[in-house]
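Bench notes, afternoon.
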Amino acid sequence: MLKPLLLAAGAVAALASSPALAQAAGEENALVAPSCDRACLLDTLGSYMDALRAGDAARLPLAKDAVFTENNVPISLDRGLWATVTAVDETGLEAADPLTGNAAWFGSAREKGNPVIYAVRIHVEGGLIDEIETVVHRKTALPAPFGDTENMVHDPEYYDVLPPEERSSRERMHSIADGYFDTVQLNDGQVFTNFSDDCGRLENGIRTTSNNRDDGRQLAAEGCEAQFRMGIYRINKRIRRDFFIFDEERGVAVGRGFFDHANEFDRYLLTNGQEMRTALKWPNSITLLEAFRIKNQEIQRIEAVFTYVPYFMHNPFWGPDSTPPAHAPQPEVCDTECLTANARSVMAAYVGNDWQSVNWADQVAYTENSVGIRIGESVWRTATAVDDNPLIVADPLTGKAVWIGRIEEHGQPAWAAMTVSAAGDKVGGIDAVIRRKEYGPPYAEPGSAPSYSALPQSQRSSREDMLAAADSFYAALNSQDGTVPEAFGENCNVALNGQDLGPCAPPFAAGRLQTMEQVRDRSVLAVDVERGLVVYSTFEDFAAIDKNYVDATGESFKDNLSYPLTQQVVELFRIEGGKIVQVRAYTSELPYGMRPHGAGY
């Protein structure tokens, strides 16, 4: 009985001494040899920037399976800024790390002639670019720094080689730079890293720490450490981040991540007792690439490019997004009354974050503006009131109820279109689409939700005919050839985010809808035959490319959008006698090309 055990022990010993297993756990090879040194990485980065200037991705040395993202959305290299770019700075801040194979560039570009702040990370393997991660900050109505791109100056010290005694190891640089994010997270006056006395910060092209701020504003404190000691950035509930560049010789570390602004409070006190108020009243995140210059164990310079994205957005380079649980509708278990009751209980629970009162299923999916979030976060903590008389469209055949109405966040109103899905008779999922006024028109201040009574029997249509009428609307929207849907009634009217846009047919007949690239990921949420209501979920892409369109009269026109974007849409149709008489849509602006949560890339 001992011989087999001895043989097994010998086999284990042989395996343990095998060169194939002689490396660190989780690594494929014990030899970590850069395939592209610093000069090679910066040369490849220069080639990328040259190709972007030319708007010609065919110039790039791309790996076959290369992944490109813009503001964390994977898209093809002929879309987004690549389709709209008109100029790129000749020089920018550059950094590279042969051990990780990453290089980064910070600067600005022009999109349809308009300035944008821009940063990119590329990863090079075997001489080919296999990852491209970009952050593009456009000038919108949302409050964020936006510098003078014509006079943007990157600190030259990022390129200076430090004397050996002023350098830090990779591990120490990581600790110092990561301590910056620890300091900014839940910023309450505690400081977890070291700053030089002359520490300066450039954010989206604006100096935000010197006494001569580019925006002319004066804060309670002006230096890097002094601002953090004051607790100015208390709104940063969570900072998700990692680092991909460490240049020991130059003391440069570069990371990426998200600042999650939960905005669970709309006012707070600095450590000196001064009251501050949040600029935005709802949860939001910023995505960023950020570079640090570290000298003598202190952060000396900071440069960041960041822009707004939906709250708690995911970075696809960190791994696949989660797939939400699927629940098949059970009409015999949860009928219209059950679905309506679920929707009402969910919305009532938002006020006061009373999520425990909801009858939850064992597996629950929750999204806001197409991003998966935990129950009890985000709008659960900002909602202060919900509509007492919403529109609810419930459909046992889809297992969903759509709640449309007004919500308030710290007293500020917004439109909400909330889809509540059932798992048996329990709540199995919520998909929240919320439109705030800061995203601009079309938008009208939320008042009463639409109200619809039951149709006379003679004016009702079958479920199939109602869906066919709505399908004709989307077919015409995607064809963009001047076709007017036959299903439009004579007095059909359309409203978007509460704003009346007039008759339905003229925009189709005029050929003025061509600037919409496509309507995709369309799904039926609910059908109510008795009231003649159909509700769809869709995503609309607007590429904002600079080209001449020709309308039905032969007149040339251009897209008035200054940047690419995607709208997530909840669209309601009222159908009487087989004809569409009303279209009511509620939208949420998303980064261009964004997909439904869990749809994959």
